[in-house]
């Protein structure tokens, strides 16, 4: 009987201003199995209308995935249908990843801007 492959997605905080950082990611780390789903939440309290999700892995470096302005998707730079963002309000941008694969292992970062 196989126990399955443990799958790691690491998230960290991306501070947009020194000391009074107003952008957080929940959860900070995700550990799950291949084939499972993950949800990452980005929340900001800076009053910004624009939010981003970035991905950084060892092969491609830092890449923008999604760009939202006023809860509207402006740019989708990801190819995979398994990655989908959702913005129910200007202060939140969720990232859903379905059917996780080993190649999804990366650092996922969020940011906000005016």
UniProtKB/TrEMBL annotation:
- Asked whether the keyword Ribonucleoprotein is assigned, the reply is no
Which SUPFAM superfamilies does the annotation name?
A: Immunoglobulin
GO BP, one annotated term: cell surface receptor signaling pathway
Q: Which Pfam families match?
A: V-set
Where does the UniProt annotation place the signal sequence? Answer: 1-21
Tell me a GO cellular component.
plasma membrane
Provide the Ig-like domain boundaries: 18-114
What protein name applies here?
Ig-like domain-containing protein
